[in-house]
Design a protein that fits this description.
There is one protein chain. 35% of the residues lie in helices and 15% in strands. With 327 residues, the chain is an alpha/beta fold. The chain has two domains: 2-98 and 299-317, 3-Layer(aba) Sandwich (Rossmann fold), CATH 3.40.50.720; 100-290, NAD(P)-binding Rossmann-like Domain (Rossmann fold). Helix 6 (152-163) links the parallel strand 6 (144-148) and strand 7. The structure holds 1,4-dihydronicotinamide adenine dinucleotide. Pfam families: 2-Hacid_dh, 2-Hacid_dh_C.
Length: 327
């Protein structure tokens, strides 16, 4: 089958070529959107990633060009108009799980970095500055951690934090019995927020969760709280977070995802003028850590992403049921 890959980087080519058995893979660096959709002409399937725009006009055009399958090489699908895909009868598959450990461990890495300031210590020591001034952290042991969304990643994250000796509270639309058995307490959001020293977001972006972190919910949090977002940028009202950083309500912010990330993340812009003043302001805070959507970025996850995506494509070609179908 001929498959057009959008938004590709070298590592996508490396992993997909390694596990490909017989398909013709064409890798475009361009993202998929209304301007680039014509690149998919002549392909049977397209493979897209988190920041591709798979809207109704794009899907309509894909259908007109004869594309029969949309394969997402990611878990989240907030960037896909699923109703349009159904209307145009193009099945959509995703990779529902590809190492929840990768993302959960990255969230923990962000917590440890923000808390113990190892990024600053690394730079200081290299410049011969062995002073500890300003590097004070806090013990994680005994702190209260709130997990919003206790699916695959949230569960792993909660377990790691319990391993540090933290008390873990959770908010989800469905309580997970296994987690309750392990001592995690489920609470309504308004009861959870005021108790937490650290809050980590692990729910998908949807109508209910959009800007779940807003001026209102930030006002319910403890002063100096640490907020971590490795899920989707749209979960946080970025302006509200910036305001809360200015007042000190937010003591630390770690984000691996950002509302306007598609214009920035995954690109090397070091020689360019960055026009996004919102992220530039965020990055000017000493207590903010931004990583460019690298939570998933482990060898195990990249292997799983390539294998699962190619398996879905094989199954589609052979007329088998698509176990990872979402539309
Ligand atoms: P999952 O589907 O296993 O878990 C999501 C959980 O969120 C479920 O327990 C669900 O009930 C809960 N949830 C849904 N709506 C909710 C609401 N309104 N309020 C509270 N909880 C709600 O998903 P998984 O695999 O744990 O991934 C979570 C998110 O992580 C994904 O949606 C994706 O956005 C993000 N992600 C980020 C990556 C990165 O590289 N930074 C990589 C992979 C996923």
């Amino acid at each position: 089958m001929k498959i057009a890959f959008f938004s590709t980087q070298l590592y996508d080519r490396t992993y997909f070529n390694q596990y490909n058995r017989g398909h013709e893979l064409v890798f475009f660096e361009a993202p998929l959107n209304e301007q680039t959709v014509n690149l998919a002409s002549g392909f049977t399937a397209i493979c897209a990633f988190v920041n591709d725009t798979i809207s109704e006009p794009v899907i309509r055009q894909l259908a007109a060009q004869g594309v029969q399958l949309i394969a997402l090489r990611c878990a989240g699908y907030n960037n896909v108009d699923l109703a349009a895909a159904r209307a145009h009868q193009i099945p959509v598959v995703r990779v529902p799980a590809y190492s929840p450990f990768a993302v959960a461990e990255h969230a923990v890495a962000m917590i440890l970095t923000l808390n113990r300031k190892t990024h600053k210590a690394y730079n200081r020591v290299r410049e011969g500055n062995f002073s500890l001034q300003g590097l004070t952290g806090f013990d994680l042991h005994g702190k209260t951690v709130g997990v919003i969304g206790t699916g695959q990643i949230g569960q792993v994250f909660a377990g790691i934090m319990q391993g540090f000796g933290c008390r873990v509270l959770a908010f989800d639309v469905i309580a997970n019995k296994d987690m309750e058995a392990k001592g995690v307490e489920y609470l309504p959001l308004v009861k959870l927020l005021p108790q937490c020293d650290i809050i980590s977001l692990h729910c998908p972006l949807n109508e209910q969760t959009k800007q779940i972190i807003s001026t209102q919910t930030l006002s319910m949090m403890k002063d100096g709280v640490m907020l971590i977002n490795t899920s989707r940028g749209g979960l946080i009202d970025t302006q509200a977070a910036t305001d809360a950083l200015k007042t000190g309500r937010l003591g630390y912010l770690g984000i691996d995802v950002y509302e306007q990330e598609e214009k920035l993340f995954f690109h090397n812009l070091q020689d360019e003028i960055i026009h996004d003043d919102v992220i530039m302001r965020l990055m000017s805070f000493p207590n903010v850590l931004v990583t460019a959507h690298q939570g998933f970025f482990t060898d195990e996850a990249l292997t799983q992403i390539a294998q699962t995506t190619l398996q879905s494509i094989n199954d589609f070609e052979q007329g088998k049921a698509l176990v990872n179908r979402i539309a």
